[in-house]
Amino acid sequence: MFKTRHPNVTPTRPNIVLFLTDDHGAWANRCYGNSEIRTPHLDALASRGVRFDHAFTPTPVCSPARACLLTGRTASQVGIHDWLQESIPDIGQRDWLASETGFTLPELLHGAGYHTGLSGKWHVGQSYDTPRGFDWCFGMPGAQRVHDGTYTYHLNGTPVTLTGNKTALITDHAIEFLHAAPSDKPFFLNVGYIATHSPYEDTAHDAAVVETYRDATFTDVPAYTPHPRAKDEAVDPGKPTTPAERLSRLRGYYAGVTEIDHAVGRIVASLRESNQLDNTIILYTSDHGCALGHHGFWGKGNSTRPLNMYETSLRVPLIWSGPGVAPGVEVNQCVDHYDTFQSVLGMTGIDTPTNRDYPGTSYAAALRGQPLVDWSDTRFGEYGDLRMVRTPRHKLVWRYPNGPHDLFDLDTDPGEARNLSTDPGQAGLIDALKHQIDTFYARHEVAERSGLNVKNLPRHNEASEAWRDGLRERAQNETRPK
Known about the structure:
The chain is an alpha/beta fold.
């Protein structure tokens, strides 16, 4: 039985459904140009709304990327610099967003009268309980493990063991939240899918969906040539070692995307059938990108040593649809998760807190089909003691304190295959770009939470000890790709 909202009590503010998927690269969508992947529901959202062609994550790994979107602040303001291995008690039980209490997106929306829910992945600490700002939560404590099987979730803090496909179960509970939402309040629902995260093998996904990709050619994925900085097999068991394993992982990843697309369609259908769709803004994005052999590695920013900031790790899908959103618009300006935080507040009429520093700017004008005036297409990113600036033409990746560094000309080398950082003729450009990095983070960091103080920060996972004890220093001596 679907609940129909009575016109006299329809909230004046729009409802918000935020899909925040894990490891879904922008390239892995039909509406972004992929010729074989099937994403009809995401394509439909894009045709009815706004698609951003140059959307980026500030950090190409799960937990800090999510923190950036949920707080609108940099990793060096929040203090999360790597993925959180929440199965380790002193990591999973830590309140990693304590410094942002009262200022996260769900808390700000809840304070403005929204009924708030989370279904799926949180991954910024204390995932075994309902996060601050949420009225309701179907969450995933600890390691997420396989995509289809038995797993102990939590429902409002109470353990619930269920067997089945995680995407389907997350969707079932998201729809339950929508059905139970009070009719006199707008709602905010954060849906966190993980089907595009490893394990990628086709056996990990819905067999019927995998079968639809049995004869796929995967022509949109570049040929796999191992990157000289890629993690070895002992460190990265997800990397394929045979052509058959590569095809299995490609089929599995594509199937994961299509499983998520189907789930998005289910939620859209539920909203339509309950007469809530016309008053609901739907926002689809991912925490960061994902490479399936692109650049010679599998994964994201932590799939190489030292860590990377390649475009495939950084670029995310970003699609908006719903009331106040212009139909059929493609935006070419560069935006990121900091801007998305500001834009959610802008589209809901909630004032940005004035007593905090934010690096982002609302792109709400673009959502309404208007030009973004005086918009900067320069983006910044960080991953621990690695920092980056990306202009429309150049990208500088600076690894503190001593490198190795990367400089790419994105116009002449969009695949980022030629590192120009040791070219004496680029010294002036490097100095100017490095100055931009230092200026940005001088404003948008808190000293005790800065990524440049990573050795003094709490560990995030088992690799953090090796990281702090010299992994970076050893990596500095590796041969850089030419």
